[in-house]
Amino acid sequence: MPSATAPPDTGSAGCVLDRDGMGALVRELRARGRTVIGPTVRDGAIVLAELESAEELPYGWGVELEGGHYRLRRRADAAAFAHSAGPQSWKNFLHPERVRQWTADRGPDGELTVRAEPPAAASFAFLGVRPCDLRAIQIQDRVMIGGPHRDDAYRERRTGAFLVVVECTEPGATCFCVSMGTGPAAQPGYDLALTEVLDETGHRFWARAGTARGAEVLDSLPRRPADEATQDRARRGVAEAAGRMGRTMPPVDLRDLLADTLEARRWDDVAARCLTCGNCTMACPTCFCTTSEDITDLTGDHAERWRRWESCYDLDFTHLPGGSVRTSARSRYRQWLTHKLGTWWDQFDSSGCVGCGRCIVWCPVAIDITEEAHALHQESLADRAGAADGAP
Amino acid sequence: MPEAHRPRLGVFKFASCDGCQLTLLDCEDELLPLAGEVEIAHFLEASGDVRPGPYDLSLVEGSVSTPEHLERVRRIRADSRHLVTIGACATAGGVQALRNAADAAEFRAVVYAAPEYIDSLATSTPISAHVPVDFELRGCPIDRGQLLEVITAFLAGRRPDIPNHSVCFACKRRGTVCLPVAHGTPCLGPVTHAGCGALCPAYGRGCYGCFGPSASTNMPAMIPLLRTEGMADEDVRRLLHTFNVRDFAAIEPAGEPAAGEGG
């Protein structure tokens, strides 16, 4: 597993941008024709939305997170990235909730014309991708374009996206990227990596390029060489963040744990609390399931196929002739968790969880993936101890 | 080529406010094309030109609330190839079903100056309690887009794409920040049937369940959440017991203060 605390060696010490430099970065990316998406305050949350200027970043805002609880908090300082995962993730842009796939028209002579939807040209720049979310993007890459069935529209959006990772220096109470090996330091895959530093010498960002196009953007910005103090302070901020994770996963092979606990009593316990509302799956940055939607117009001569987000909590998700396969909340929660932590490995050679904590925060009844994993672990230990004691 | 038979559409009303059939008139851009595809044979809110059945598709609004309704609903069913109920009254009995668990005679006495002229049943019940229905479209009122989807699906002979999941799906897809989580606002979204496009939460108001329960609810977990968000038992009961009182009351856990009495 790659180290979660050491920044990757970019081959250079990088440079330092001040707050004006951040403004210039947004201007430069926009001048290059990119739609810059980044964090901004809206409706009592730090959401991801198009930024016209870096001044729309959430300077001075932090968040208070707990299970089923999210509140904006004013910070004593002016940090722009001292917040962890919000209500959305980058999948909202790379894997949009509803996409047209093809249209069909029937002509006067009855002849059918079917047209595949041309991939929409998209040129995003994502500003403020957290390391856990960079991993989430890579996990969705494997799903959408890394196997035998490839989604060209996703590929178009993804390859066009310029990624500015901002390392995590302020993890939330629901974060556990260290347990999942995805943060808080940036791992390869970014165009630019930034680390925010605020101290008596000022508010600045230690910047490194991860790609040639990243270096080209960086070279066009007002900047200064990275001094030792800034680098040290940045590295220390990230290292300290690793020690302030609000949550952990049990220190076991989660894939084995889930495979061994399919009949655990804990599933009944969590099913009694689960609303089956589907929020966890839609807030999750890696959940990718979709369903097809066929629409016709009133004449019946025009039809369209759309793909939209679907969730394993939806009864219709497993609807077959005869009804739904997973009718109980128990079976649906178990499907989600075993896939996320266990069978994702069998399917895609990785975990489906990056430790961002969104499913914990945005669950209205505060069901906590780490608490459930710990409970399954404890139940399995207790059962094993009981078996060793010869108990029934 | 001989002109194809245009399907005949009927729109009928029982105990209701007319808001759901008004949704059909609100389909401004689609109304003329629709009138080209179907023969609107019975739609009193739009036209006095009433033609007898049979109807290929009947849209039925309102609940069965009077002795006369009992007979009329059977007649309409017999006249209809497909019968689709529209709105909370027709699918759940509506707000007037509050009388089901109360003293209907007392209600009548309070509301009407001369209650002896009122001939109503002791209960308000959905159309499906009396005749088989082919599809139930929910909402108070129904959603315009969903109504068009049901009609176009009928015309194409396909199943309407009307998801049975929660309003949370719509909020997340729309990008609305979760009201209970980020603001502590009580919201019935997690147990309410989608279809409105999560309209209220998009404007900062908690869902009040006007589409009725979703296909998968957990009321024993939902009701304590509403209390955590500061609702008193009486408020919880009022929230659940409005337009879809019959359907929510049916899934409330026994012993909950929310359960039981209507009003």
UniProtKB/TrEMBL annotation, chain A:
Keywords linked to the UniProt accession: Iron, Iron-sulfur, Metal-binding
Q: Give a Pfam family name.
A: Fer4_22
Read off the SUPFAM superfamilies from this record: alpha-helical ferredoxin
Molecular function GO terms recorded = iron-sulfur cluster binding; metal ion binding
Q: Which domain of life is it from?
A: Bacteria
Note whether Iron occurs among the keywords.
Answer: yes
Keyword Metal-binding set for record:
yes
Q: Where is the 4Fe-4S ferredoxin-type domain?
A: 263-294, 344-372
Name of the protein described by the UniProt record: 4Fe-4S ferredoxin
- The protein's organism comes out as Streptomyces palmae
TrEMBL record, chain B:
Which InterPro entries does the UniProt record give? Hydrogenase_assoc-protein, NADH_UbQ_OxRdtase-like_20kDa, NiFe_Hase_small_N_sf
Give residue ranges for domain NADH:ubiquinone oxidoreductase-like 20kDa subunit: 17-153
Pfam families registered for this protein in UniProt: Oxidored_q6
Q: Name one GO molecular function term.
A: iron-sulfur cluster binding
SUPFAM superfamilies named in the record: HydA/Nqo6-like
* Signal peptide stretch: none
Identify the domain of life.
Bacteria
- State the UniProt keywords alphabetically: Oxidoreductase
Q: Which PANTHER family match?
A: COENZYME F420-REDUCING HYDROGENASE, GAMMA SUBUNIT, CYTOSOLIC NIFE-HYDROGENASE, DELTA SUBUNIT
Q: What is this protein called?
A: Oxidoreductase
Q: What is the source species?
A: Streptomyces palmae
